[in-house]
């Protein structure tokens, strides 16, 4: 399974792709950042983010896209740009029929480091270790995008094993949707 | 000048187009709403909003698109959907090279009714009167989209006269951008 993680943003939109399956070593496919100039207008910036993500989807051909779920925070202006960049990533993936998953920052941190309150350095260090990289990916947005993709693969595995266990015991899974198709639901680690 | 106003939303995205110029009667070209089912996932909803707006742009062929500027509000989940629908509208317009303007709710209310704190009924009544309609457009999202388009035409006129007056007096306009291309700047009526 190949997953593209997107850490949305207008100034820097982190993109990171990994390949693998739960329980086996993961491999990094690509990592990078799409940047847009802060003095461009919002229309030009969103079009540039869209073009960048489209190029990645063309080249990477992921099976699923994992985008960070955006919450309203203190810095209102920043969070709006983040939400709008996330919308562009979601539309790009959904237009191609790719499953889109939204993971909260806590879910990603918990999945990758075991601690939902881990800091950026801890997340970056674990991503570097899990993907057996020579150095921590920079900037942090790029490492965060890889963490999202790792989280997606691993959480998918957990969800799959849960569904299999429930199927074996004759019960049904608690939700008709898998994690990979659960963009509206709340996360367990929120 | 033909302007498409967009009152962004996932459940109901209001769309309203007007034609005219400042100082002359305005004409309504079209009004309507794009709806998406609340139990669809966010990807499907944003793709449906995009398809709806693309259809409108194909048919209406506006010279500019005016989108309501979204702020973080109390209902976090709703405002995120609104911001994401706005992003889709902005991308659709900017991809075609159309000027995109963001107007705050206060700017729209002030332009249309003379009162930045007007309620929805007052805005709807003024839109009905200004466009000489037989009845108030419904739902409110549709009336709000028309109000955005009216606001855009009228504010454009004010900005143009200001620029002309400054040019005549040998000064430069306070900003290199016109209102119609001012998506990042703050509004005066915030």
From TrEMBL, chains A, B:
Xref: PROSITE patterns: RUVC
Keyword DNA repair: yes
InterPro entries the record matches: RNaseH-like_sf (IPR012337), RNaseH_sf (IPR036397), X-over_junc_endoDNase_Mg_BS (IPR020563), X-over_junc_endoDNase_RuvC (IPR002176)
GO function term, MF aspect, one: crossover junction DNA endonuclease activity
UniProt GO cellular component terms: cytoplasm; Holliday junction resolvase complex
UniProt-annotated binding residues for Mg(2+) 1: 7, 141
EC number: 3.1.21.10
Catalyzed reactions: Endonucleolytic cleavage at a junction such as a reciprocal single-stranded crossover between two homologous DNA duplexes (Holliday junction)
Pfam families: RuvC
Positions bound to Mg(2+) 2: 68
Keywords: Cytoplasm, DNA damage, DNA recombination, DNA repair, DNA-binding, Endonuclease, Hydrolase, Magnesium, Metal-binding, Nuclease
Entry's localization field: Cytoplasm
Gene3D superfamilies with a match to the protein in the record: Ribonuclease H-like superfamily/Ribonuclease H (3.30.420.10)
Domain of life: Bacteria
Bound cofactor: record note: Binds 2 Mg(2+) ion per subunit.
Active-site residues annotated for this sequence: 7, 68, 141
NCBIfam families: ruvC
HAMAP family: RuvC (MF_00034)
Sequence similarity: Belongs to the RuvC family.
Subunit structure: Homodimer which binds Holliday junction (HJ) DNA. The HJ becomes 2-fold symmetrical on binding to RuvC with unstacked arms; it has a different conformation from HJ DNA in complex with RuvA. In the full resolvosome a probable DNA-RuvA(4)-RuvB(12)-RuvC(2) complex forms which resolves the HJ.
Function of the protein: The RuvA-RuvB-RuvC complex processes Holliday junction (HJ) DNA during genetic recombination and DNA repair. Endonuclease that resolves HJ intermediates. Cleaves cruciform DNA by making single-stranded nicks across the HJ at symmetrical positions within the homologous arms, yielding a 5'-phosphate and a 3'-hydroxyl group; requires a central core of homology in the junction. The consensus cleavage sequence is 5'-(A/T)TT(C/G)-3'. Cleavage occurs on the 3'-side of the TT dinucleotide at the point of strand exchange.
Identification of the protein by name: Crossover junction endodeoxyribonuclease RuvC
Lineage of the organism: Bacteria, Bacillati, Actinomycetota, Actinomycetes, Streptosporangiales
């Amino acid at each position: 399974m190949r997953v593209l993680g997107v850490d949305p943003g207008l100034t820097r939109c982190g993109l990171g792709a990994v390949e693998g399956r739960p329980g086996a070593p993961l491999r990094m496919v690509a990592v990078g950042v799409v940047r847009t100039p802060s003095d461009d207008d919002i229309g030009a910036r969103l079009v540039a983010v869209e073009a960048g993500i489209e190029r990645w989807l063309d080249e990477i051909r992921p099976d699923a896209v994992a985008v960070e779920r955006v919450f309203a925070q203190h810095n209102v202006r920043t969070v709006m740009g983040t939400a709008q960049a996330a919308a562009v990533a979601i539309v790009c993936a959904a237009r191609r029929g790719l499953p889109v998953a939204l993971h909260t920052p806590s879910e990603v941190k918990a999945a990758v480091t075991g601690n939902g309150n881990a800091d950026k350095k801890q997340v970056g260090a674990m991503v570097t270790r899990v993907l057996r990289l020579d150095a921590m990916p920079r900037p942090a947005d790029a490492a965060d995008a890889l963490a999202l993709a790792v989280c997606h693969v691993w959480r998918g595995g957990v969800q799959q094993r849960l569904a299999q266990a429930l199927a074996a015991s004759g019960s049904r899974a608690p939700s008709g949707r898998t994690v990979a198709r659960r963009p509206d639901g709340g996360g367990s680690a929120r």
